[in-house]
Amino acid sequence: MSNILRRPRTRGAIITAALAGSLVCGLAATAGADGNSPSMQTVQAATTAQAAPIAQAAAAEGGAAAAASCSTTYLAYGSRGTCVKQLQVNLGGLRADGVYGSSTRSRVRAFQADARIGVDGKVGPQTWRKLRSYGKALAWVGGLTLYMCELKSKDFRVSMWNNTSKWANWGYYMSDHSYPIGWEKIGPNRINTQFNIYAGSYNGTSFTAWVGSNKYTTRNVRDISPRLIPAC
């Protein structure tokens, strides 16, 4: 017989259940007071309508807690799961499939080398901290990766990773701007925080990197939004 492990209920889930139960009791009490008992369908509909926003808030709370727990999770070749996927999304240049394979290991090694931390291809607290200081990858092409994190409300830190052996420039274009952010030089094989910008939510359109005499452009970019960019 297989063992069944019960996960502890989150605070949000407990609040959801409690409020949903209170709503049912309230409807029953109302029925007893006026003599017009609502149907079970009415009770269920009302319960669902009131509980849905609370359930969504609980899910968001659970997601935030899971993301925070990744910073203390050790990952290595063969690891799988949510924290691997978060690593891949924030690191950039990878398919976020939640599987720590050879591509993820190579990308982690390159990041560690250019960030000037210990290179072992494994992700522990030091690598998580360094990655958090840059934020989330918004775009990558030609060996360059653009990172952003939110310092405070709508105040973003912009960082660039040049994983090539040449000096490079870059530009990130947005649909609501007539000019790109960027045009900052960065030396070979390094990650630098380049500047801060104050911005709201913008749709990204393209990212261009100039590496030596070569130009690379991609339209596979992520948007700028305080809702999507992690805190620094």
Q: How many strand segments?
A: 8
The class by helix and strand makeup works out as alpha+beta
The domain count comes to 3
Number of helices: 5
CATH C-level label of the largest domain: Mainly Beta
* N-to-C SSE string, H for helix and E for strand: HHHHHEEEEEEEE
CATH architecture label name of the largest domain: Sandwich
CATH topology of the largest domain: Immunoglobulin-like
Outline the biggest β-sheet.
4 strands, antiparallel
Rg measurement, Å: 24 Å
Biggest β-sheet: strands ordered side by side in the sheet: 1-2-3-6
- Overall pLDDT: 79
Q: Which residues form runs of ≥5 with pLDDT under 50? A: 1-40, 45-65
Sum up the overall morphology in one term: globular
Instruction: Indicate the percent of residues in helices.
Output: 25-40%
User: For the terminal residues, how far apart are their CA atoms?
Assistant: 47 Å
Approximate strand percentage: 15-25%
What tags apply to this protein structure?
Immunoglobulin-like; Peptidoglycan-binding protein; PGBD-like_sf; 3 domains; Peptidoglycan-bd-like; four-stranded antiparallel β-sheet; Muramoyl-pentapeptide Carboxypeptidase, domain 1; 8 strands; 232 residues; alpha+beta
